[in-house]
């Protein structure tokens, strides 16, 4: 990717079984791999030590306490940015995303380096219906908050994130630390004028998979986050309308 310096970024919390496969799948890309351990227990720490021994391009940053998905991602973005990376190719540690599909996201980011490249999930029969319904609800609220249908899925953990506008936003706004972070990041980057590109990616659910998504608690947290973004959108609406009218009048 010309004029870009890209790393892969993985956050992990108690997912010892598939992290090696995820890192191995990314290895052919030749990207430095940053892993943020969000306060995992001993089995995951041992798995990460084995990964570091097998793959010298891997660095691990350990958070002393579990702070949540959003907190770990914010740590990872700042860590990557401090090392001079311009973009972070983000994947989950549970193996739901196929690393072999990562080149498509990198190519999309190469074509439009200013864009937030989002994975557009393609689900098979293993996907729980509750997750599918929840994603439709999230799409609905993100479309309202951004006045746009550009985002196909605001929750997918496989994405390529432009770090400069992300750090700019994080320095200005206190975002959620849990599962509500991914859609909030998407909305706030769009408010900053960051374009969105969607790339189809397959999502697989394993019978023995470990999920840290709490159906009630995290859905409540997401609902509160969408409500906050909605009222912020209403506060921003008059300025956006005035700007749109001025642009329309200035057009030839």
Highlighted features:
252 residues; alpha/beta; seven-stranded mixed beta sheet; 18% strand
Radius of gyration computed on alpha carbons: 18 Å
Shape: globular
With strands numbered from the N-terminus, the spatial order across the biggest sheet is: 3-2-1-4-6-5-7
Oligomeric organization of the protein chains? single chain
Overall pLDDT metric: 88
N-to-C SSE string, H for helix and E for strand: EHEHEHEHEHEHHEH
Number of strands: 7
Structural class given helices, strands, pairing?
alpha/beta
Give a quick account of the main beta sheet: strands, pairing sense, barrel closure. Answer: 7 strands, mixed
Q: Roughly how much helix do the residues carry, as a percent range?
A: 40-55%
Distance between the termini: 36 Å
Total DSSP helices = 8
Low-confidence stretches: none
Strand composition percent: 15-25%
SSE topology sketch:
Elements: E1 6-12, H1 19-26, E2 33-38, H2 42-54, E3 58-63, H3 69-82, E4 87-92, H4 102-111, E5 116-123, H5 129-146, E6 159-162, H6 163-172, H7 181-191, E7 196-203, H8 215-250
Parallel strand pairs: 1-2, 1-4, 2-3, 5-7
Antiparallel strand pairs: 4-6, 5-6
Helix pairs in contact: 3-6, 5-7, 5-8
Describe this structure in words.
It contains 8 helices and 7 strands. The chain has helices spanning 19-26, 42-54, 69-82, 102-111, 129-146, 163-172, 181-191, 215-250, and strands spanning 6-12, 33-38, 58-63, 87-92, 116-123, 159-162, 196-203. It has a 7-stranded mixed sheet, sandwiched between helices. β1 (6-12), α1 and β2 form a beta-alpha-beta unit. It is globular and about 60 Å long. The two termini are 36 Å apart. The mean pLDDT is 88.
